Amino acid sequence: MVPHANEHDLPLVLVLMGGPDAEREVSLNSGTRVADGLRRSGRYRVNPQVIDRLDADGLARLAGDLVAPIVHGPWGEGGELQALLERDGRPYLGSGPEASRLAMNKVATKEMARRIGVPTPDWQLVTPGAKVTLPPPAVVKPVDDGSSVDLYLCDTIEAVETAAQGVASRRGAALVERLVKGREVTVGIVGGVTLPIIEIIPHPGTYDYEAKYIRSDTTYRVDPADMPAPVKLQASRDALAIAEALGCRDVSRVDFLVADGKAWLLEVNTMPGMTDHSLVPKAAAATGLDFPGLCCRLMGLAADRASASAVDGRNLRASRAGIR
Questions:
Q1: 156, 174: one domain
Q2: Would you put residue 94 in left (φ > 0), alpha (ψ -120 to 50) or beta?
């Protein structure tokens, strides 16, 4: 812990966690750890708050100099909460509303990837009653959710149709994506710098919700030595390219499948998990950055952006007044 002469002089971070979506429990776990990491760093005071779906007045009543919205799912990281935070005016961690909206929408992300030349598996957007035309094997999943929620691996067209119509009826639409059989890897990005690649080897088979957050039998390999260097370079380069194209900031995580000598983009996460199973903290630790240090680094990015905006605002006001 870093000593400080007067604890009350420390910035107060409002840590939001929970939210109304399927990943609420993950958010509670992540938010609790972030609050603890900030507190242990000795650089911040912390006001942890469990929320459901906030409105502007509710947010304004919560104390904090800075906001860490550690909320996962469509509402928490899909742009709605970020729009509230923009109107609130306090510096907050993470991407803004538009980048959050684009990244949460897997189809919009894949369309952006195609435009900038990042490989991504073929896909089809299926609405209720629409016919599936993408042949199996395929993956069926929601357009706008994470943590492998409502995900199905299908080997027959009948299975694809059933899964797609089920997801579409519950969610309004389903993403049907060509199944790429390969090695699952992820690239974390903090402050515009990529972290070491992590390969994920679940047991058994699929890296589903339980493998991510409940079971302890998943193997994680940092910068796997047997993965060709050009593939690792491509994954890191493409992770940064898609995050920048979407407008992500502060922290993100980009997921790929490696097959056929290349990394295939799956999705971009603008508020990655911060649990003890989560991948960005693991990658940061591999660089020597412990969890409290990571939390401080992230909040520092939000604080620095606020300071830069304040300076720009003062300069703009001086310019308009004819003062140089």
A1: yes
A2: left
Please check whether residue 203 is in contact with residue 148, taking contact to mean a CB–CB distance below 8 angstroms.
no
User: What local confidence, expressed as pLDDT, does residue 150 receive?
Assistant: 84
147 is catalytic: yes
Q: What is the pLDDT of residues 112-130, one digit of tens each?
A: 999 999 999 999 999 999 9
What CATH number corresponds to the domain at position 152? 3.30.1490.20
In a domain, 261, yes or no: yes
Q: What angle do CA 115, 117, 121 make, to 5 degrees?
A: 90
Instruction: Respond yes or no: is residue 213 known to be catalytic.
Output: yes
149 within some domain: yes
What share of the chain has pLDDT > 90, as a percent? 82
Does the annotation mark 255 as catalytic?
yes
Q: Which of 147, 236, 252, 278 is catalytic?
A: 147
Same-domain check for residues 134 and 204: no
